[in-house]
Specification:
CATH class of the largest domain: Mainly Beta
CATH topology of the largest domain: Immunoglobulin-like
Strand order of the largest sheet: 1-2-4-10-8
Number of domains: 2
CATH superfamily of the largest domain: Immunoglobulins
InterPro entries: Ig-like_fold, PapD-like_sf
Order of helices and strands: HEEEEEEEEEEEEEEEEEEEEE
Shape: globular
Helix content: under 10%
Oligomer: single chain
CATH architecture of the largest domain: Sandwich
Largest sheet: 5 strands, antiparallel
């Protein structure tokens, strides 16, 4: 069983995803997911994810739960077994359906259910809901490419793709704080890049948007770079990151102050969680 969007509604949805960066949609080669993360808090026991086939051909998706760790560079690696600091949520979660075939411009709601053990220790638990597009049985099955990133995972066989979203369970958590440090600007033939570190402390993950601005002496603030949806997952205390800086016409990255900010997502209020500055001679 699957629910079908009208073509007009789907076009509006896809257009909104392009025009509104704040809309929680993830698009990947014909696959769109809304929202891009699920967080269970307090007494919440159910959530849903909308899986949309925005391609021009039918597609079959297999859905599963997987466990992953985040490296200090923000990449994900598979975790077959739990380490001493890992808190995975897969044993508490169930979902339905496990496989679905969608016609072009149609959608399916995937329901995710949580059942906490009575003796669950306080803390944050996380697993990932993985959506794998199965290869067309009429296509050749030779390996074309291999992909390994947070958005596209595994071996690609022609039209085979995958996308994952985190499913987070917070049980009696107290929250987290963020710091920004180690700001450094590198200049090269392709432009300037700002490297920095995002620190996380507390018993929860952090998730927000990063922006870099520059205030030249005697001038007004100029936006140089933005990155949306930046996460640091437990148990990691730190993430290394960088931003490519784009200078406005007539502005030189010198004799001024660079400002780096980490904010809540707009839908969470947009409050500044951390800020750091770097004086440039």
């Amino acid at each position: 069983m699957h629910s079908t969007f009208s073509f007009t509604r789907t076009v509006r949805l896809l257009t909104a995803a392009i025009l509104m960066a704040a809309l929680p949609l993830q698009a990947l080669a014909g696959l769109m997911l809304n929202p891009t993360r699920v967080v269970f808090t307090k007494n919440q026991r159910a959530a849903q994810v909308e899986l949309i086939n925005s391609d021009s051909t039918p597609a079959t998706y297999r859905i599963s739960l997987v466990n992953r760790r985040m490296t200090e560079n923000g990449e994900f690696t598979g975790a077959d077994t739990a380490g001493p600091d890992d808190r995975f949520a897969d044993t508490m979660l169930s979902f339905s359906p496990r496989q679905v075939t969608l016609l072009p411009s149609t959608a399916q709601v995937v329901r995710v259910m949580l059942r906490k053990p009575a003796t669950l220790a306080a803390g944050e638990y996380r697993s990932h809901l993985h959506f794998e597009k199965l290869a067309d049985t009429g296509a050749a099955s030779s390996v074309e490419t291999q992909a390994a990133s947070a958005q596209q995972i595994g071996v690609v066989l022609n039209t085979l793709i995958g996308a994952s979203i985190p499913v987070i369970v917070r049980h009696q958590t107290e929250g987290a704080s963020v710091t920004l440090s180690a700001l450094d600007v590198q200049r090269g033939a392709k432009g300037a890049q700002l490297s920095f570190q995002i620190g996380r402390s507390g018993d929860s993950s952090v998730y927000g948007d990063v922006s870099a601005t520059f205030v030249p002496q005697g001038g007004s603030e100029q936006v140089l770079a933005k990155a949306a949806g930046v996460a640091i997952y437990t148990p990691n205390p730190m993430r290394k990151a960088s931003l490519n800086l784009t200078m406005p016409p007539g502005v030189t990255l010198a004799r001024g102050t660079l400002h780096l900010r980490f904010r809540e997502r707009a839908e969470a209020g947009g409050a500044v969680l951390a800020e750091a500055t770097l004086a440039l001679p």
